[in-house]
Structures are given as structure tokens and as C-alpha cells.
Design goal:
- It is built from nine helices and seven strands; from the N terminus they run βααβαβαβαβββαααα.
- It has about 220 residues and is an alpha/beta fold.
- The protein folds into two domains: about 170 residues, Alpha-Beta Barrel (Aconitase, domain 4), CATH 3.20.19; about 35 residues, no CATH class.
- Helix 8 packs across helix 9.
- The longest helix has 14 residues.
Length: about 220
């Protein structure tokens, strides 16, 4: 997982509440446990006018020009500003995978579904919770000002517009902040203790060799 460093990016408004994980990445694309290959099908039923199929290239599919992410002004957006209860529905981790691969590093909302919120941190996305009226005003400003950009600083827990007219602090759990700043997912956290794990295994093999002999015999040849 990449370290989360301060960055400035284009913000895109998705003015909808209760966007569920089925809408973020429809079920027919959940054919892989790899973390790649889902970005092209993010919001598939809203982005395209036809029905998407797993493994199909989206290059020549007809686009829905009315959908926000298909508008030229929001191409390359890295910050998504959405309505309340974003990521509700099923617990599929493919939803943050699709958002991240599309290019989103930050999602700003009045509230998130709990499992989706947790999955974002585990996959390198920063979900920021701001007051409902603040998010609504931010969405209005983004629509009014083409090319609107925000700077996000996780260490300082601050998001602001390039011109400084919008400035807002946000709360984040210290442990989750530490993991994002250092690029640590669950595997990365475990590997930090690799030496202690190896030492424990070596000690246990001496203390209870019969366990390891049994494991060795049970391993398929």
C-alpha cells in the first residue's frame, strides 16, 4: 500500500445519498479476488448506456454523457464528494478497490457505512467525514467552479481549496492515520513483527517438536 502524502487534486461531486456498494461495483464484476481490474467498471450502470460484462473492454462502450464522471471537467479527479451513508449495502471489498484503481484517493461525505469506511483505510483511501451542510456547500462550489481543486493533508488533518477560501479540519483515528501515512495494510502491519514471529516459531519448534513433525507429515507432497 502506498504512503498517503499531502496532495492537491480535482474534486468531483456525486450528489446522491445512500450510494451502495452494488452501485459502486455491480455484482457481475465480482469474479476475482485480485485488487486490480475493477476501475473501468466503477459505477458501471451509471457510466455506460449498455450492460457491462466481466472481462469486457470498456473502450468502445457507449457513455452516459449526463453522469458526472463522464464530463470532461472531472477527468482525472482524485477526490469524490458524496452524500450521506456512502458505501452502504453489502460488505464487498471490491468497492474501494474500484474507487482506488479509478484514481480516487479521498472520499468526502457526511457519513459512511461502517464496513465500507473500514475497508477504505485498509486499501489506502482516506474517507473524510464533514458536516452535512459543509459537504452540500462544497458540492455547490465544485459545480460552480470548473477545475476546482482541494489540498488534503492527512498529517495535519486538514482539507482546503487552493485559494484558501475553503478550509476544514477533520477527525481520524490515530492508528488509522498512522497506517495510511506509513502505507501499512494488515499484511504490512504483520510484517513489521516478522523477526519476533520467526523467533517465536523457532522457540516453539524446540519446545514442542512433535507439533511441527505432525504439521510436516500432514503437508501434501
Amino acid at each position: 500500500m502506498e504512503k498517503f502524502i499531502p496532495f492537491t487534486g480535482i474534486a468531483a461531486p456525486l450528489i446522491r445519498a445512500n450510494v451502495d456498494t452494488y452501485q459502486i461495483i455491480p455484482k457481475q464484476f465480482l469474479k476475482s479476488i485480485k485488487r486490480t481490474g475493477f476501475g473501468q467498471n466503477l459505477f458501471d450502470e451509471w457510466r455506460y448506456l449498455d450492460e457491462g460484462k466481466p472481462g469486457e473492454s470498456c473502450v468502445h462502450r457507449p457513455l452516459n454523457d449526463e453522469f458526472i464522471l463522464n464530463q470532461p471537467r472531472y477527468q482525472g479527479a482524485q477526490i469524490l464528494v458524496v452524500g450521506k451513508n456512502f458505501g452502504c449495502g453489502s460488505s464487498r471489498e471490491h468497492a474501494p478497490w474500484a474507487l482506488l484503481e479509478y484514481g480516487f484517493k479521498v472520499i468526502i461525505a457526511p457519513s459512511f457505512a461502517d464496513i465500507f469506511y473500514n475497508n477504505c483505510f485498509k486499501n489506502g483511501i482516506l474517507p473524510i467525514v464533514l458536516d452535512d451542510d459543509v459537504v452540500e456547500q462544497l458540492q455547490t462550489t465544485i459545480v460552480a467552479e470548473e477545475g476546482y481543486q482541494l489540498t488534503v493533508d492527512l498529517e495535519q488533518q486538514r482539507v482546503q481549496s487552493v485559494d484558501g477560501a475553503f478550509q476544514q479540519s477533520f477527525e481520524v483515528d490515530p492508528f488509522r492515520q498512522h497506517c495510511l501515512l506509513n502505507g501499512l495494510d494488515d499484511i504490512g502491519l504483520t510484517l513489521q513483527e516478522a523477526e519476533r514471529i520467526r523467533a517465536y516459531e523457532a522457540r516453539r519448534q524446540k519446545e514442542a517438536p512433535w507439533i511441527f513433525n505432525a504439521l510436516h507429515e500432514a503437508t501434501p507432497k
